[in-house]
## 1
Amino acid sequence: MGQTRKTEYYLDLRTDYGFKRVFGENPDILKSLLNEFLHEVIGRKITDVVYLQTEMLGFSNKEKRIIFDLYCEDKIMNRMIVEMQRAEQEYYESRMLYYMGRSISKSVKRGDLKYRMQKIISLHLLDYKSVWFNNSDELVRTIQLKDDKNKIFSEKVAIVLVNLCNFASRKRTIELPSLRHKWAYLLKNMQKMTLKDEAKETDPIFKRLYEESRLSNLNEEEMEEYKKSVLEYQDVQDAIECASKRSEARGMARGEARGEARGIKAGIAEGIVRGENNAKRAIIAQMLENGLSVPIIIKLTGLSEDEVQSLS
């Protein structure tokens, strides 16, 4: 007999719909999340959050537009970019810098000869195995602009990375060592939580998180939109896994064939490299075959619209 599917009561916060609905419509919940992960780099507690336009057009028609997951500022005009990243991208670090650079350029007013810019902090919630954490138990990495003596050059910019991959196993939230760990765990596992978990929760902000994440809050149209977002998330994960396996298999086969002439070990190594180089193209093709929209693929891969269209 097939395994019975467990009833879900809450949104999956890793999905585009779930994340933006909960954190993009509830400034008190977003403020708590930001305070937990950004307090050290901002240097003070965030008391208020104002949402900003998430789409930023290029300065010309030829320049790339960007769309943030969330973009906001606090009471003293510190600006914060918040991204839930669901899959690894080859050029994700470049995308981080580009998003911050555009935000910096928009923060300085025309005619300001003193270049008075707000502090720009970029928070990235990573739902994949990032090289920045290298399979460690580390939860947070902070990247700042420093010189070779480790002296901070400017406190105006910082990137904060949060590792969600160590929170896949089901455990009681009371066992988690800090509020940071609890936030990361619920970001990863909200869709697995039960009504009993909500009833046991005593922290006011996490009670709010449970309340705003309830699937029962959605009307029929919203539920269809959420289901579509879940399928897109699952398709991305399936496409990455499938394409990676195919690429590795092709690489191994090529390497083994050439190994007869060059030595088995060297041939397999070369085949794997070639397979990795083809992985990205295979992933994009798989996404298109699975019906993912071009805007979603652009966001997940960092490719331009022309590059994606050339594969369709």
## 2
Amino acid sequence: MPGRCSATHVRAQLEEWDAVSPPIVWTFEPSVLVGVSALTVAYVWAWRRARRPGMPHPPGLGRLALFAGSMICVLVALVSPVDNLSRDLMVMHMVQHMLLLDLMPVLLILSLTKGLMRPVTKRVMVIEQRAGLLATPAFAVFMYVGMMGLWHIPAMYDYALAHADVHVLEHLCFSTAGFLYWWHLLSPIRGRKHMTGMGTIVYMSITKFFVGILGIVLTFSTHSLYPWYQDHPHYWGLSARVDQNLAGVFMALEQSMIMGVALVYIVVKMLSEGEKRGPKEDQYGRAMANYRAAIAAHRSTHAD
């Protein structure tokens, strides 16, 4: 009887939760606010420094806006109600993950320019050289796909939600993996393992394929894979399974959009760089032709 009463009480509580909207709670986590503030101060200082008269490649206001967007992504993911809702709704947890894994790193890297990176460019190149395999595009794909797969194993996923410190580690893993992955595509400085042409397409296609498998599993699963959400409020009338399906749909749409936009950006950038190299190559060709003509004229004069 006690067990039956307890089960009845749980069902009644879940039905009550179904009828209400989730609470809107801002966390205002001090460590997040301090971190965002420190990064903002550092970036604004570097941005102003790079805009001094005579500095090459000065960053414009657009770069500052991109950086602001990246910090807003952090605040939305970790300070806004999204953070609190992620404990009860998987679709909101997926929103949080995508903000940290894709949108924040993309905007942050795009906010950087050669001028901003100039004071640390050599140091970055040294770190890349010493990192060896860890600095290759292959490892970035492995890291990106691996972190997505690892933290979506039901036992790992639920454990992170149940333990705040582990949840923070999960967020750090996603942010690091995302930054490393997008760095190889969008970095303003050319690294030793710089990808061109088909390399970029293969890089993104492999990632899309493996992450897509996870999206398919979440979207089309006929039962909930995560016990955590089965025992938590089903707000907006969403069952744990439907909530999970929506999370998979959101991930698939976000991945398609971000990868598609990034690919278009990279192609346009490559075409622009090709047009800039064209005149330089023509100048070099003309200079070499003039040089050869001068040498020939000198030899002819010397022979006479």
## 3
Amino acid sequence: MGDIALTNPVLDILYDKYGRGCVDYVTKSHFSPLIENHPAVNRLLCPGKSLSLKNLRQSIRKETYSVILDLHKNLRSLYLTAGLKNVKRYKKEIMKRELLSRLKIYQPPFLHVSQKYINTLFKSPNIPQSFLYLPDESAVREENREFYNTLKRSKRALILAPGASKPTKMLPMETWEHVLASVGDLFDYIVVIGNGHAESRWADDVSKRNDLGNMINLTSRLELAELMLFISLGEYFAGNDSGPAHIAAMLHKPTLVIFGQTSPDYGFKPLNNSTPVEPPVHLICRPCGHLGYKSCPLGHHDCMRSIDSETITNEIKHGIQRISNIEKTT
């Protein structure tokens, strides 16, 4: 999810340079809400039951594209573009990443992945401020409409994403409980999102309590288009290094992101207005990879356990104070 969202700066640049509908974009259908409303996109090509990889490959070859950008550079994208001359592929810098993960050898510069995407086409000194184009509100299904309207009427909601793609990228749930006990009364609603079993079970339990704020449990309820729209209604976002954090940051929401096992040095820090929180101590085992694992390779998970709730609480309170100060001056 994050990889797709982080291609938006490339679309922004192409739109500014070539205008509306200048890009055909290939991605899996369930990621399409992240891209389909961008004005640079002419059409989405989504491999699946109705469009096999073989037929998609033939379709790409029939077109007269001036350039083909491979911003994924995996076996699938290599298959789709093999033999074509006008293909530009982004540099993953896998060796740098592996040296950092396995031997803790840091070889700067580590460019942000969006910068690498842009450099695939042409050199640019910076990443433009980018915004994620939202789907229409009609994407909110009837079973979630009441929650959506409630949040539209609220003045201050915290969007909390306690899950992640792998367990090692997740802050312990008890730490989030301590955070909510301290900041719950600052918000009209605490909205918990995510599709993993761990956060769903946790949200089911804590939403029954009355000491953690007014909670709305939306875990395992939202499709991607709905997720984007619900995040857009929040005033503040807090969560682990995961796809929803990228969405929040690209919607220009104040975004707090927990980096434990992973690190911003890999180049996947959410764009725009995001605040990373990392372990307060130097761990010789960190970072151990950018994708995460089912369990800590060393069995202790100190990277996440060492991040205390007070640090996160202070960051959230500081962020809310900044929002309040801005509101007073406008």
## 4
Amino acid sequence: MRIAIVLDSVTRAGAERQALYTVRELARRGHDVELIYYRRTQYEYDVSDLGGAKVTFLSRHGSYPRFLLRMYRHLKRGGFDVVHGFKATPSIYGGLAAWLAGVPVVLGGYRSGGYQGRGVVRLLHRLSVHVFTGWVVNAQAIADAMVAGIKLPPERCWVVYNGIEPDAFVSALSPAESKRRLGLDEGAPVVSLVARFDPPKNHALFLRMAGLVHQSFPEARFLLVGDGELRDPIRRQAESMGLGDCVRFLGHREDVPDVLAATDISVITSHYEGLSNVLVEAMAASRPVVSTAYPGAEELVTDGHNGWLAPCGDAPAFADCVRRLLEDPSLRQQMGENGRRIVEERFSIDASMDRLVSVYEECLHRIRPPDARAK
């Protein structure tokens, strides 16, 4: 198959990493793949080696109609079988251009918890129902939200879970060494949150949880990994709460596996998510997780098996989950091992790509039945 994956950028974030995994693995399997993106950012993934896949930067300058025309011409020349917009906005640009170019299979992609489209975006997504082949999402909860949000027929919405390389998140460092390198005491319990400082991630809940847990575990340290618009306000809030010594702001990191090695409990405090890459990566590193019970969290976390779920926004309940794990090292180890097995069985690259390729093939078969292709 000749396949185009359309992204807005290759910024260092979870959805973008999934797109690169997808492009590389599709190329490795012998498909003719092209990654198309249209915006530059400060922190970008290296896209120089994607297993032989072509990479095209198609600058998003000028008016929307002119950019759509450039995208249309590029896709028309490309002779693609499948164009897959990987996120909400790239689905609009890539999907409409692909439809105009006569691409046989046009797929949108949505990877955020719930359906958050508003105004023109929602209108265009609703219009897509009449011209796209369908949509690919990364959690059943998102599929349900898309069906309700844009009136998408359920049979045209496919769930493809995120896939990762589990061993890529296993550090060569011991927990003690990784803690020393971060300037932490070897015996200090460590709770970490890896997330951009954006409103949906709800870092304020993390701080409230940290303040409560710190009362019982004054030696505990709480790591915030990432950058974003709210980093400075959250830092000021931590200082105003008297948490300046126990909450550490590590900024953007290239060594997330080493941070996970230093971590005893990995957490997510979000109001909503898609399928959380952070949780999958922590589970790959054999770390127990605590997450807010946003819609879809139960697709990753089985309460009491590989972690705990706490009601969204409930700091005392969240803190209680963290305390229970800090009090019981054997439970932490067992939950971590359970999480690793779940990743190996359900969230590997191979499992994800098997499912995605089957979706592409199913869609092509609908357009080109086998007997028609043989003629």
